[in-house]
Amino acid sequence: MGAEPLAGTELARTIREEVAATCAALAETGGRPRLAVVVATDDDASAWYVRSISRAAASVGIDCEIRDLGAAASADRIHEELRALSAAPDVHAVILQTPLPDGVDVARASEAIDPAKDVDGANPVSLGRLTVGLPAFAPATAEAVVTLLDAFGIGLAGRHVVVVGRSPVVGRPLAQLLLARDATVTVCHSRTTELAGHTRAADVVVAAVGRAGLLTSEHVVPGTVVVDVGTNPTDDGGLVGDVEASTVGPVVTALSPVPGGVGPVTTALLLRNVGRAAGERE
Amino acid sequence: MGAEPLAGTELARTIREEVAATCAALAETGGRPRLAVVVATDDDASAWYVRSISRAAASVGIDCEIRDLGAAASADRIHEELRALSAAPDVHAVILQTPLPDGVDVARASEAIDPAKDVDGANPVSLGRLTVGLPAFAPATAEAVVTLLDAFGIGLAGRHVVVVGRSPVVGRPLAQLLLARDATVTVCHSRTTELAGHTRAADVVVAAVGRAGLLTSEHVVPGTVVVDVGTNPTDDGGLVGDVEASTVGPVVTALSPVPGGVGPVTTALLLRNVGRAAGERE
Predict the structure, then answer these.
(1) Cβ burial A247-278 (10 Å sphere, 16+ → b, else e)
(2) Which of A62, A114, A149, B45 minimizes the number of CB atoms within 10 Å of its CB?
């Protein structure tokens, strides 16, 4: 037996096709959507991710501009660049790539991104609006979890979802999206005692900490649906999630793979948000 | 036997004394702190609450100005008033009283309150900043719950807190405050199935729905600490919480009374926030 794989590749392809159609229509009337990515790191994984975003953007008809400020950029320099891009009429969407230089606070910096261009929901304003039910872009990773569950027909209303991880970019916004979908939501984290007691009581478990081996077979029961948001590099250049798939897979009902689960859906939704931001500007 | 009463009256008095000292110092250097309350309802309970805020403000040396726009005020009129008060140099703090006229969205209207004067944490910006750990005023009711628990030495780090109610003014911001204090947090609501299963598993239960009789003895076990945020008017002009105190009290370890629990602490914290907002403007 084994868990149903909650694969995201097909779903991501479908979303990208829709985005490509949107972008083609926009290109005919006003011009190609344009995404700016601000980078201030020489981190290899970050560079790889930015290139993959750029390629994915090109494939759907989105221009992607990388603004590399260097790993020594000051907070002021980063804020200034984000404000300039927010004001630029030919830029429809702005992402601030992490990590940032020491001493630069990502939340404060993100306040310089115009919420109308904040396609990865990084500005606290976006998160606040999301929380109170006003229109806002959600962080793409958080939205990808809900979109993936929807695609596989896994209901959320009245279900108990345990989110492991309380980061401002995944765990906390995801909790808001799940509450908006009428799930009962528990947020666990590094200070949670008896994590397994919480996750074993859940209908759906979302692992979003960023630590390989976080969830093992002792954390789940037959019937659990598990979504793995983790992307942890391995020594041999591969990628593993937060879930120990070899022991969890045989127990649970469904499990999203890493790679090929939440990741491709996240990228597709980010591009969809760029298309929407460009559409709003028409 | 019976539960320890988590009374808020003494704590509120202590906070008000601190605020009075702050306001006296401010009055000597720059002038009395000034709070503006925007009202657009003829609801009796609301009028009673505004009068009580006004009296409490006066008692600590805060001037309170009521701007009654009438129960027929338009959204535009309310936004305009909030923007004007946000811009007024002699006003340090702004509250928008609810309920609002039909068709006026409280979250949208609250976006017109300058976050620096948003002493009841109503602007989604305040909530977003709170969520990502940036400085912001928290909604006073949510902060009162944490302050009350602190005052009675009830630890939160690593404890499991179940919040019943997901409103943008209490449940959701409270969940953020509790996560920031390292609690494991579950948010339950009207669509939660088997509410008692969740609340019986908690170390601390916070009832914040606004329905008398929401929690009864079947929802708690010996050892549970219960904070009652509800304020429901009774037919005889009294006030009861969301917790059926007569059946819950004999079972649990501690229970906050209504009235005299969270309520007075909320008012005191609101005034403290006015003092802080005025202090920041010096």
Answers:
(1) ebbebbbbbbbbebbbbbbbbbbbbbbbbbbb
(2) B45
- Average pLDDT taken over every residue of chain A: 96
State whether B132 and A107 contact (CB < 8 Å): yes
Model confidence at B85: pLDDT above 70: yes
Tell me the C-alpha distance between B98 and B46, whole Å. 7
Ordered by where they begin, the domains of chain A are 31-116 (3.40.50.10860), 140-263 (3.40.50.720)
Cα separation, B257 vs B3, in Å, equals: 10
Q: What percent of chain A has pLDDT over 90?
A: 95
Chain A residue numbers touching B108 (CB-CB < 8 A): 134
| Cβ pair B132:A129 closer than 8 A | no
Please indicate if any CB of chain B lies within 8 Å of the CB of A131.
Answer: yes
- From chain B, the residues in CB contact with A105 under 8 A are 134
Q: With helix as H, strand as E and coil as C, how does A157-168 read?
A: CCCEEEEECCCC
pLDDT digits (tens, 9 = 90+) for B91-121: 999 999 999 999 999 999 999 999 999 999 9
Pairing of strands B225-228, A4-5: unpaired
Chain B closest-CA separation from residue A169 CA (Å): 9
Which of A179, A185, A232 minimizes the C-alpha distance to A206? A185
**Complex ipTM > 0.85:** yes
Half-sphere exposure of B155 (CA within 13 A, CB side): 5
How far apart are alpha carbons A195 and A213 in whole angstroms? 13
Is A74 annotated as ligand-binding?
no
Is the pLDDT at B282 greater than 60? The verdict is no
Return phi, psi of residue B37, to 5°.
-115, 120
